[in-house]
TrEMBL record:
One of its GO terms (molecular function) is glycosyltransferase activity. This is Glycosyl transferase family 1 domain-containing protein. Residues 209-378 form the Glycosyl transferase family domain. Pfam families: Glycos_transf_1.
Amino acid sequence: MATSLIENKKTRLDYSEIALKIIYISEGNLPSQEANSIQVAKMAQAFAQKVEEFELVTLGDLWSFVRNYKFDFQNWYGLTREYKITQLPLLCKTTYPFPRKYRNKFRSQHFSRWAAFYAGMKSPDLVYTRSKQAAKIALKLGLNVLYEWHLPVEKGFFPKQITKHNFLGIVTISQQLASEYVTAGLPVDKVLVEHDGVNLEHFLPYQTKEEARQKLNLPLSTPIVVYAGHLYDFKGIPTIYQVAQLIPNCLFLLVGGWKEDIEQARQVCQRDGLVNVKIVGHIPQTQVPTYLYASDVLILPNSGNHIWSATTSPLKLFEYMATHRPIVASALPNITTVLQHKKNALLAKPDCPKSFKQAIEELLISPQIGKALAEQAFQDVQYYTWEHRAERILQFLTNKLQEADYVPQSKFYLQVLKTLASKTG
């Protein structure tokens, strides 16, 4: 829908000047423990605060719809503000949160198809999604699409879809991925690099180490190193086990994980006699800050031996930065665009337990160093909030709409009335 909303193309509109209607199509995996579902829920909250109309679409079941059952998304994801979440009742009956392996190709395609058609009926100014299938269908329906993609180039999306006028671009989390997309044919002005982020309100009120430990019944005098996230090998969990063996006087807390991964971690600890490793398991997002505040050191040991190691943008990184606690992280390419050694963190060699041991002991021996690093990290993370990420994405979107002379749905009829009034005047 093109008209003369923008009289002067040299003038850049701020997104806040335009009342936008956005539908965010998830991959149909909310609510779940999957990290990408947390990212979607947090980004949706940020978008909802910035635009006129917003709706997040995910998968639901008919039984819950008939009973008017509403899952508590706010507590599960630690959301600080409510927004509209629509669960399409495409399943007969299920339980929430979704289990680890509930998704399959048929179910994902089925949801994506109906979600895209649902969006078409709502006539939004934009469909935002991380679902490749939903993006393809929405484009065929003539809807404007902004696609968020965190993986290397795959066959099936390039280059046909990127030539469509209503394909506004891709949002990704690393410059390396952006370069791959451009090499594959995506115009450089249609890619936006934005790291993941954090909701700072989620970490209020601030808790002292002593307060947090008393709440969790943890020892006050024992050095504690905390990891929060999934217990996958490529997240560096084997490195944590080895570091725990090297620093037996420290207590290591592992917070998070799927049920089967938690059980496997407990078996490893029992086998190797790791009495100083405590497997906390999965907890609601609302409880995560207390565990982070209870730490002396936060550890981010992502492995360098994985296909995604160079492009990862871990959610926990930004949560760590928000807690005023020192961080020891793997010196991986995309992580080092946020963390700088001895400036806002200590960086260790990936998959090298001795390197992590040295960094952790340095922080325990010299807490003043850790305090300075933590305070700088807290200052730096102000840029990486979900709200600021949403603002930058919306500005990118606004510029793309302007280039196409697009009138947002919410402004279109007002524009028509003004035009008619000028002609009759």
